[in-house]
Amino acid sequence: MVTMGALKKEFERLGFSDVETFIASGNVIFRSSSKSTPALERKIEAALAKALGYDVSTFIRTDAEVLAIAKHSAFPAARVARAAALNVGMTAAALSPAARKALDGLSSEIDVFHVNGREVYWLCQKKQSDSKFSNALLEKTLKTRSTFRGINTMVRLAARLT
């Protein structure tokens, strides 16, 4: 485990500005002059691996992308209201047609998925503890890295950015 204070210091050491962490889940808000998201992700991953001693996947989203994620209506509002949870998975790249088909294979009476760009929206219709779905299962099935956040976290993050 890494503290948010230590994570913030590592981002500052990398030369980023306006660094702050957002809730204790590894979300970091920062400014960078770099225009290459993949290069930034690699830079951060290498620095965190060196500082922490283990690999850390990073998924950068711009302010505009976070706002779009929070506003995206992946499912009808009434269906979301009846569900136990709505989570958003971030991946490094948009899913290929084969990956989308594999994701469809993970759907069940509990779990429903929607893809929008590099995001996978997961509607869990019952308690998440009843679901067989997990981030690890998604990564194994799709052969890609990902990280999930609850939609409420994304909405709060979007509000913080406006």
Structure, described:
- Helices cover 42% and strands 22% of the residues.
- The two termini are 30 Å apart.
- The longest helix is centred in the first third of the chain and has 16 residues.
- The strands form two sheets. It has a four-stranded antiparallel beta sheet with strand order 4-5-3-6.
- It has two domains: 57 residues, SP0830-like domains (Alpha-Beta Plaits, 2-Layer Sandwich), CATH 3.30.70; 80 residues, Alpha-Beta Plaits.
- With 162 residues, the chain is an alpha+beta fold.
In whole angstroms, the N-to-C terminal distance is 30 Å
Kindly estimate the percentage of residues that lie in beta strands according to DSSP.
15-25%
Tally of DSSP helical segments: 7
Look up the CATH topology of the largest domain: Alpha-Beta Plaits
Q: What's the order of the H and E elements?
A: HEEHHHEHEEHEH
Number of domain modules:
2
List the helices and strands and how they pair.
Layout: H1 4-13, E1 17-22, E2 27-31, H2 37-52, H3 63-71, H4 77-82, E3 85-91, H5 97-104, E4 111-116, E5 119-124, H6 135-142, E6 146-150, H7 151-161
Antiparallel strand pairs: 1-2, 3-5, 3-6, 4-5
Quick take:
With 162 residues, the protein is α+β, with helices and mostly antiparallel strands.
Key structural traits:
alpha+beta; Alpha-Beta Plaits; 2 domains; four-stranded antiparallel sheet; two-stranded antiparallel ribbon; 42% helix
